[in-house]
Design goal:
With 342 residues, the chain is α/β, with parallel strands linked by helices. It is built from 11 helices and 12 strands. The strands form 2 sheets. It has a 7-stranded parallel β-sheet, sandwiched between helices. It has a 5-stranded antiparallel β-sheet with strand order 8-12-9-10-11, sandwiched between helices. Helix 6 crosses helix 7.
Length: 342
C-alpha cells in the first residue's frame, strides 16, 4: 500500500501568527514540498498574498468559515491533489482564525477516498501570548482551538513579562494538559516541532513524553523540560469552568466486547460535548495495541504495532471537551476491564 500523505491542520485565532509560521515553513531550506490549502474568512482571500514560496501549490477556499460546505470543498481539493501525487510531500491546511478545527479534522475520517490516501498528522494551534487570556474569555473559537491541539505554539512571548507568560501557559494547561507546548517569538520553532508529528495516533507523543497519559493530579504533561530552569515553579493550576480534560487508566487489559459498545454509546450520546478522544488499549487475547481517536461523534481506530515484551499491557484513554461527566466516564471505562476485579 502506498504511503499516505501527511496533513497538518494549522489553526489559531486572528493575529496569533499562523501566516508567520506558514511562511517560515515554506521558506526554510528543508528540501520538502508542500501543497497549501488556505481557508480565509470572506469572499476574497488575502492570506494568499502573504504566503511566500513560489514553488508551492496554494489552493484557496473562499467560502468563509469552515463548516460542512467547506468540508466538501476540502474533500474536492484533496482528491484533486491526490491525482498529482509525487509533486509534494505533505499538505498543510491553514484554517481561518474564526474556525473550529473539528470539521476539518473530521474530513480525514468521514470521506473514504481521503482516508485511503491522506492521514491527519497533527492539529497545530498558534496562540498569542499577549492576547490569549482575553480571547479565552470572549471567543469560544479560541478555546476550541486550544482544546483541539496536538501541538501548541505559544507565540509573541517577547511581548509579555515572565509572569504573564506563566499565567497564559497555566490557562492553556487548564484547557489542554496533553498537547506539546512550544514558547516562541515570531513562531521560531524547528520544523520537526510542527511537521511529521504523528501526533494524532498518540505513539509519537508517548515516545517524546512517556507521562502523557499518566493519571495524576498534577498536570506536568508536555512541558518543555530544560528550556528554563524552574519554569514549573509557581505555575498556577487553573480549572477551566467550561472546558475539561480527563484521562483514565486500567492497569491491564480491556474486554473489546464491552469497550466497543461503550465507547460508541458515549460518543453518540455525548459527542457534541467531546472535542477530542484518544486511547491506547490492550485488548484481551490480542497481541497488538488498539489505538483509537475521535472527533466529536466520529471515531477511528485500528490495531497498530505489537506490544513489546518489555511493555506493560495497560489501557489508557483521554477525553477533552465541555461539561463532561467525569464519574460516568471513569466508571464506564473501568467496567470495560477484562478483569472485573479492577
Amino acid at each position: 500500500m502506498s504511503e499516505k500523505i501527511p496533513v497538518t491542520v494549522l489553526t489559531g485565532y486572528l493575529g496569533a501568527g499562523k501566516t508567520t509560521l506558514l511562511n517560515r515553513i515554506l521558506s526554510e531550506d528543508h528540501g520538502h514540498k508542500f501543497a497549501v490549502i488556505v481557508n480565509e474568512f470572506g469572499e476574497i482571500g488575502i492570506d494568499n498574498e502573504l504566503i511566500v514560496g513560489a514553488d508551492e501549490e496554494v489552493f484557496e477556499m473562499n467560502n468563509g468559515c469552515i463548516c460542512c460546505t467547506v468540508r466538501g470543498d476540502l474533500i474536492r481539493i484533496i482528491e484533486g491533489l491526490m491525482r498529482r501525487k509525487g509533486k509534494f510531500d505533505a499538505i498543510i491546511v491553514e484554517t481561518t482564525g474564526l474556525a473550529d478545527p473539528a470539521p476539518v479534522a473530521q474530513t480525514f475520517f468521514v470521506d473514504q477516498d481521503v482516508q485511503d490516501q491522506a492521514r491527519l498528522d497533527a492539529v497545530v494551534t498558534v496562540a498569542d501570548a499577549k492576547w490569549l487570556a482575553d480571547r479565552l474569555r470572549d471567543a469560544p473559537e479560541a478555546k476550541n482551538q486550544i482544546a483541539f491541539a496536538d501541538v501548541i505554539i505559544l507565540n509573541k512571548m517577547d511581548l509579555v513579562t515572565p509572569e504573564e507568560l506563566r499565567e497564559v501557559e497555566a490557562r492553556i494547561r487548564a484547557i489542554n494538559p496533553y498537547a506539546k507546548l512550544h514558547k516562541t517569538s515570531r513562531c521560531a520553532v524547528p520544523l520537526d516541532a510542527v511537521l511529521g508529528r504523528n501526533a494524532f495516533d498518540l505513539d509519537r507523543i508517548l515516545e517524546i513524553e512517556p507521562s502523557f497519559l499518566e493519571v495524576d493530579d498534577h498536570d506536568h504533561h508536555g512541558h518543555d523540560h530544560g528550556h528554563d530552569h524552574g519554569h514549573d515553579h509557581g505555575l498556577k493550576h487553573y480549572h477551566d469552568e467550561e472546558m475539561q480534560s480527563f484521562s483514565f487508566l486500567i492497569d491491564g487489559e480491556v474486554d473489546p466486547a464491552r469497550f466497543m459498545p461503550w465507547i460508541n454509546l458515549i460518543v453518540q450520546r455525548e459527542g457534541p460535548s467531546i472535542l477530542r478522544s484518544k486511547g491506547i488499549l490492550a485488548f484481551k487475547g490480542e497481541d497488538k495495541r488498539f489505538v483509537f481517536q475521535g472527533v466529536h461523534m466520529i471515531l477511528d481506530g485500528d490495531l497498530q504495532r505489537e506490544w513489546r515484551p518489555d511493555e506493560k499491557r495497560v489501557s489508557k484513554i483521554v477525553f477533552i471537551g465541555r461539561n463532561l461527566k467525569e464519574d460516568d466516564l471513569r466508571s464506564g471505562f473501568m467496567a470495560c476491564a477484562a478483569n472485573p476485579a479492577q
